[in-house]
Design goal:
It contains 13 helices and 6 strands. It is of the alpha/beta class and about 290 residues long. Helix 4 crosses helix 9 and helix 5 crosses helix 6.
């Protein structure tokens, strides 16, 4: 059996990769956003917070159990006759953030409405609440980046002191902002805090197979880095590199532009406040990966 772990930060085509691999003979594929003791402990701690919305509690609780099962496959790498391959994926970070907002738009609307109500900002419908809520979020993200000087410095800095600089004294409102800020920063922190930390794989040490795919080879198997923007090409190169003659195409699934208010969201992400954030949305890792 050849097992594949699609280990990535979400909204990068991982479901398509997993489904395609699972159609191939003698393969078993899983996807995971977090693995390892520290990540499991952090998730368990977050799940104990009564302020975590039920939607995210149920989602994260299910992920924790599933990821524990997946980690057992990784922990047993090199044992027995089973093969293991890990696949990770990078995506342009600001477009990724838009996709993340779209993914859980109904729950995010609840948070935006609560914030706007706290500030006595009027809105007439969901589309307006989304627009005003995101405009406020973009303003605060800009302030946070400007306070630290760059996204790199923001990632490394003590972000939880920002309630003073951003004038958000109310704890729940600040916690909601930090939830969004940490999502925004995920493409800039994930490779160091997850892939390198848990699998000892630095994206800078990977050997390019083409602009669409890179690889790092270990005694137990390979780790591949694909680019979301050329995922079909990268997936084909991966299969070639592993010697697979069976070709499986990537199915189209879970498109964020099929979600609620997707056209309104695209319009908001093209407005001046959003474009100012986009211009600053780069870091050491994303620049290295070619996103600027």
């Amino acid at each position: 059996m050849h097992r594949f772990i699609v280990y990535q930060y979400g909204k990068v085509g991982s479901t398509s990769l997993m489904n395609a691999l699972n159609t191939m003979p003698d393969t078993q594929a899983f996807q995971s956003h977090f693995l390892g003791k520290d990540a499991f402990t952090a998730t368990l701690t977050r799940l104990q917070d009564p302020l975590v919305p039920d939607y995210f509690f149920e989602h994260s609780a299910g992920q924790l159990i599933e990821n524990l099962r997946i980690y057992r496959h990784y922990a047993s790498r090199g044992m027995g006759d089973n093969k293991l391959t890990v696949i990770t994926v990078a995506r342009e970070p600001f477009d990724w953030f838009r996709s993340c907002i779209a993914q859980d738009i109904a729950q995010h609307l609840t948070t935006f409405r609560a914030t706007l109500d706290k500030k006595n900002v009027a809105y007439s419908n969901d589309a307006e609440a989304l627009k005003l809520g995101l405009q406020l979020l973009f303003q605060r993200i800009l302030q946070a980046i400007e306070h630290f000087g760059s996204v790199d410095a923001l990632c490394a800095g003590k972000r939880y002191t920002l309630h003073k600089e951003l004038n958000i004294p109310e704890p729940v409102e600040f916690k909601n902002f930090m939830f969004f800020l940490n999502i925004f920063l995920r493409p800039h922190t994930w490779f160091a805090s997850h892939l390198k930390k848990e699998m000892d794989c630095d994206v800078r040490d990977m050997t390019p197979l083409s602009p669409a795919a890179s690889c790092n080879r270990f005694d137990w198997g390979n780790i591949y880095l694909l680019r979301y923007e050329s995922l079909n090409e990268g997936f084909s190169l991966l299969l070639d590199d592993l010697g697979y003659k069976h070709r499986s195409t990537l199915p189209h699934s879970n498109d964020s532009r099929d979600k609620l208010l997707s056209s309104e969201l695209d319009a908001i992400f093209s407005q001046p406040e959003a474009l100012l954030v986009k211009a600053l949305c780069h870091s050491q890792d994303t620049r290295f990966l070619g996103y600027r």
